[in-house]
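[User] At your convenience, examine this fold.
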Amino acid sequence: MEGFEAILNDVNVWADNRDAVYIESDYFQLKSDDDFLILYGVNHEQTGKAVFSNASFYGAEHFNGVAVANTTTEFKGSAAELFPEGYENEKFYYVCRMSRKIDEQGMDIIVPYSTGNPNGTAFGVDNYQDASVIFRIYVDKQTLVGPALFDVIWDRAILFTKKNSREKAAFEEIKIKIASKEIRL
């Protein structure tokens, strides 16, 4: 069952339809207010492979999308400063950040907490709860259906966590010996 048939029958097909490609990250956990995600990839609207694309932060327990980055418009050209001056294809890329708090540039997508959320517990995800990022690439401009999975470069999410000073101390004693070379981690 897909799209229109699912709507008529009041059935959620959980993104399994032909109008979009959905790419989900592995599960992860935010463990502190200092943890954040960097999302990056191709602006699929600029390549003609989508009329719209976004990235949503989902809690695993309730499959609740609580934060969204519109990667086609909100972050259009956001990766330009990462390329050498004069690079002609910078418009084809985006980068953004999801976190618990706003960064210095004010460009963060805020991930709300579940506990104490005035809208209800389903409107956030707490620390130490499984979560993922789901990227949606909606309708290829030429075919008017979702792009073929292997016609697009998949978006990515990288989780950055603050190192605990205790964890760091435990790793200072690790040594790796390869041939006659010793490497300390």
Remarks:
- The radius of gyration is 20 Å.
- Strands lie at 20-24, 36-42, 52-59, 64-70, 93-99, 108-110, 131-138, 156-160, 175-178, 181-184.
- The first helix runs from residue 3 to 8.
